[in-house]
Amino acid sequence: MSRSVLVTGGNRGIGLAIAQRFAAAGDRVAVTYHHSPPPDGLLAVKCDVSSSIDIDRAFSEVEAAHGPVQVLVTAAGITRDSTIRRATDDDIAAVIGTNLIGPIYAARRAMPKMHANKFGRIIFISSVVAELGAVGQTTYAAAKAGLKGAARSLARELGPRGITVNVVAPGLTDTEMIKTIPDNIMQRMVDTIPVGRINAPDDVARMVLFLAADEQGTTNGGFYAIDGGAATGH
Ligand code: NDP
Question: Are 76 and 8 in contact, with CB atoms under 8 Å apart?
């Protein structure tokens, strides 16, 4: 049966691949964008996820068009890589605001209706950097690791109401986000991936669809790395 799905950051990259998979499965899909609207065919709502006012407005628009959000995927994210000595207050606030506070705002806003309907699927997009750490990504890794604690707490809080909360942690994925990595460094990173390649966005999308399925009702509070085995052992 068609469900109301909201993907933050669903206008491009991993979020778009996720949104397109849900749409292909017959769901009513809305995406948020910050600067660049998505391709035609998806309900697009402008939203800065680090603003609770924007989140509230985005949900209201989606509810009016598609009904209460039953599946929430938070894919909006940014990096502002720099060594900690060079990280500005603004870098730190923006990275935490977008990658950690945004998903928590969205989960909070989704909650009353999921709670009332005794059903919900929430999937936070984290990163394997949450497990591995990375030079220049102190704040990003902290935000992405924070999603794990948030999901595990929500899993306990909301599980009794039929709402599951899980984390998907991609490794390197072929999107704009990694386009600035120089070729020689990229090759060194690929060499550390047991399967010998980075993800396509759809590799991540397929896992999200699996976790969001109606019948996946006991998969709750999990952290799933989609990284070709790069974080194995952590
Ligand atoms: P992209 O850089 O391709 O896309 C980023 C997305 O986030 C865009 O949709 C962008 O919207 C949105 N966004 C950024 N800031 C905000 C904001 N303040 N409010 C609302 N939306 C915002 O990234 P990816 O597709 O690669 O990344 C998707 C998720 O996956 C992110 O959370 C990222 O951290 C994570 N990830 C990515 C990896 C990779 O290698 N690519 C690896 C591990 C995790 P707009 O275009 O309108 O600005």
Answer: yes
